[in-house]
Amino acid sequence: MNVILLGPPGAGKGTQAKRLEEKHKLIQLSTGDMLRAAKDSGSELGKKAKPIMDAGQLVPDDLMIDIISERIGQPDCANGFILDGFPRTIPQAEALDRLLAEKGMELHSVIEMKVQDEILVDRITGRYTCAKCGAGYHERFQVPKVEGVCDVCGGTEFKRRSDDNAETVRSRLAAYHAQTAPLLSFYGEKGALKSIDGMTEIDRVTEQIEDALGAA
Ligand code: ADP
Ligand code: AMP
Fold first, then answer.
1. pLDDT in tens, 172-205
2. Which atom of ligand 1 is least distant from the CA of 7?
3. Deepest of 49, 161, 190, 197, by most Cβ within 10 A of its Cβ?
4. pTM for this structure?
5. Contact at 8 Å (CB) between 96 and 106?
């Protein structure tokens, strides 16, 4: 099963992708995580992407399409994957269609996670992750069971993303509305789109996604 989680930054794509990964044994493909790893490694891709990400804009389509093309061809993706953060433009969606056709793969569902902008700003500015295993938390909405200790790996160091600040969030939301929201009609016209309410509790969002996948 190959699924796209579509939604603005902070909608909860990463949070839900991790749950789907575990339950359905799918691979989470987060282009944001891939770019952050490239930045941390100091690679050419990372050097190109850094100023663009810090400005809250989108990395050029050709780079993103190459990354995904290479990644979905790897053996661990054969049993299914969850795209989290890709596609983000119409050219990326068209390229994905071509890539899937070439590789004999199908898209099971595109799930839109609907969340209002004001809520997104709160979610993004309060987001942090475990420095050791990457588990995601929020200052108010998703705190570890024991304060300062990661639920998943017991790690005690946490980090924040450099682009998770109030100014950059505004640019990222503007990029979403201008460049990514058109994908809703792109997939809607194909009959592949299911929209869910991303503003309820995390567990309720998971239930809606499971329903949408079952009904697809
Ligand atoms: P995305 O991957 O779409 O950018 P995340 O999954 O990282 O979003 O979620 C953004 C932040 O909001 C995280 O700190 C996460 O803990 C929190 N969060 C995710 N889903 C919900 C929800 N349904 N209600 C409240 N907070 C949430
Ligand atoms: P994310 O982790 O999905 O919020 O992505 C973080 C940043 O990485 C975005 O603000 C973009 O600058 C860049 N990025 C991630 N995925 C893409 C994509 N598919 N196309 C263009 N830029 C991307």
1. 999 999 999 999 999 999 999 999 999 999 999 9
2. 3
3. 49
4. 0.96
5. no
